[in-house]
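Predict structure. Chain length: 245.
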Amino acid sequence: MTAASAAGVQTRRDQRRVLGAAALASGVAWLVLITAKPHIHGGAAPLVTAFVMWTVMMVAMMLPPVLPWVLFFTSARVERSGGSRAVLPAGVFLGGYFAVWTVFAVAAAFLQVGLVEGGIMAGFNPQLDGRLAGAVLIAAGVFQFSPLKAACLTHCRTPLGFFLARWRDGPRGAFQMGFAHGRYCLGCCWLLMIVAFAVGVMNLAWMALLTLGLSVEKIAPRGPALGRAFGAVLVAWGGLTIVGG
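Prediction complete.
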């Protein structure tokens, strides 16, 4: 077996392992969200509870859209290392990526607790009232047409170009590349995540829809156009929410 064919075999083997681990992690995260839902309003530390649930939400929702990047990274790592295993380095890359979303989870948890304690949101599945919810929906919809969204989405749709231009060797390099991609991904998606405050922080239907939408937007051939169509729907939804509220 030639070195190239051996590297190809190792790449396919590692990619299968990465996909299996990602499917397991995503499945566990969704299971936690489903089974923990009746209990999230209790406890003596609402900020910690909110942070944990936001962190689990980020894992459940953002693993599917980032999988193409992890697979590209795995392939590049095997090739550059001469056939070495790439599962652990892929995990380090994901660690850098989710470090960004963990920071977002902290901010979202503080915002949620602040809104609840301020009486702006309440209930088992806290959400904003009609007008505020409508304003959030409209803002998220308009953002889908913004230059910042377009720039970040372009990055998210071109993993090969990123790795060719910004590859870094070693565990530190893997973490740095994951962190760098995570920042672009956050820039692409953060306002859509905030929509949870408008539709219910633990609205599982919205989480599933957004996970699908983000995956299509970043992977499908006409993803950007579909993303803008989604933005138009959000604007209309927000307008109807304000009128109805």
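Summary: The chain is about 80% helix and 0% strand.
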